[in-house]
Amino acid sequence: MMLQTQPSTPTQLLGAFSTMSTKGQLVTSNTTCQPQLSTTTSQPLFSSERSQSGTSGSQRRQCKEHRMLTDQERDDYHKAINDLKKDTISSVSLNKYDALAEHHQQTSTTAYGGAAFVGWHGYYLFLYELALQEKNPNVMLPYWDSTLDSAMDTPTDTVIFTDKFLGNAYETVTTGPFGDWERKIQRSLHTYIVANYGK
After folding, report:
1. How many angstroms separate the Cα of 107 from the Cα of each of 32, 42, 64, 101, 125?
2. Which among 87, 90, 91 is positioned nearest to 79, based on CA atoms?
3. Exposure b/e, 30-49, CB count within 10 A at least 16 = b
4. What is the 3-state secondary structure (H, E, C) of the chain?
5. Ranges of Polar residues compositional bias (predicted)?
6. Of 34, 127, 171, 175, which is the most exposed, with the fewest CB atoms less than 10 Å away?
7. 128, 103, 118, 94: which is closest to 45 by C-alpha?
8. Could you read off the pLDDT of 127-171 as tens digits, one per residue?
């Protein structure tokens, strides 16, 4: 299934999730994440820290490795993802999660074709985190340190591929917090990996 109205730029895609002020600053609820769209910030463009503004000032929060999240943080993160999967965008035939996935798939030549890789994905993950924070403003996008699993005889035996985290490791995910998803974007990552890198 393809987008009926395909966003052609990340900013247009972002428009489905939040609003922009006339000066180009992102306007979100009470959370501001790095990277910021402002070029006048004195903070680094990319950072593992995020700032959250509240009524009592600002506090810095550290992004965590997925396995280091508390049970509540992990449950909130997984629920926010599932809430995106259930939230449809009026101008698009897909839910918000699938619209983000479709945008990634449709721009893969640009996103993977050279020097744009890091910058494009940094901005893409920023958009994804903003979308998650629409569902729960306390959710921070965790990272996965795959080097922790690389020395395993069978890396797919990692706890990441269990019901507590991402579900089963092979083919379509059928267990865990995302096991009941209906697939909207038809693309086999496993087939791609086997074809290009072997099993």
Report:
1. 26, 30, 28, 10, 14
2. 87
3. ebbbbbbeeeeeeeeeeeee
4. CCCCCCCCCHHHHHHCCCEECCCCCEECCCEECCCCCCCCCCCCCCCCEEEEEECCEEEEEECCEHHHCCHHHHHHHHHHHHHHHHCECCCCCCEHHHHHHHHHHHCHHHHHCCCHHHHHHHHHHHHHHHHHHHHCCCCCCCECCHHHCCCCCCHHHCHHHCCCCCCCCCCCCCCHHHCCCCCCCCCCHHHHHHHHHCC
5. 28-46
6. 171
7. 118
8. 999 999 999 999 999 999 989 988 889 888 899 999 999 998 888
The two tokens of residue 91 are: 């101008």
Q: Which amino acid is at 195?
A: A
